[in-house]
Structure formats: structure tokens, C-alpha cells
Specification:
The protein has helices at about 5-15, 20-90. With about 100 residues, the chain is mainly α.
Length: about 100
């Protein structure tokens, strides 16, 4: 602070008293923090929340795709095993080159 501000501050403290001046300064500090949070932090949090929800939705879609692919793979494996069992039961040689797909 400049010398003039300190002189003015000391004059205000001597006129109104330290508790009142410190209460007013504390009130200003609370107002400043509240204003900063509402103008800067809250919009950023809202934007981050929207992004987070979008990412969670994409992860769920990927998880569903993985589950579907795993089910398809399991079905192909079961069908291949059934085909091998049929071929061995009928006496035909099993051709390992077949993919069975």
C-alpha cells in the first residue's frame, strides 16, 4: 500500500475502531471470493461436468460393444466346436484350415 492509503486507513481505524474496520475488510474479502467463484469457477465446473458426462456415455457404449463382440466370439467358438464334433462323428477328416465362420 502507498503511504496515503496507510494514512487514510489509520484515520478510518481511529475514527470507527479496529473491530468495525476489520469486519468491513473481512466482508469485502468474502464478497471478492464469492464473486470470483461464481464468475470463474462455476462456469468451468459446469463445462467440465458436461464433458465428464459425455465421456462416461462413450465408455458405456464401448463397454456394450465389447460385450456384444465377446458374445459373438463365444458363439463362433461354440459353433466351431459343434462342427468339429459333427465331422468327427461322421468319420470325415477335420480340416483345420476352415475358420467355421
Amino acid at each position: 500500500m502507498e503511504a496515503i492509503n496507510l494514512a487514510q486507513l489509520s484515520e478510518v481505524i481511529s475514527k470507527y475502531g479496529f473491530p468495525i474496520v476489520s469486519s468491513v475488510l473481512l466482508l469485502y474479502l468474502v464478497y471478492y471470493i464469492w464473486k470470483y467463484i461464481t464468475e470463474n469457477i462455476t462456469p468451468t465446473l459446469i463445462e467440465s461436468n458436461v464433458t465428464l458426462v459425455a465421456l462416461i456415455d462413450r465408455i458405456r457404449m464401448l463397454d456394450n460393444d465389447i460385450i456384444r463382440l465377446q458374445q459373438k466370439l463365444d458363439t463362433v467358438i461354440v459353433l466351431r466346436d459343434i462342427e468339429e464334433i459333427r465331422e468327427s462323428a461322421h468319420g470325415k477328416p477335420i480340416n483345420k484350415d476352415k475358420t467355421g465362420i
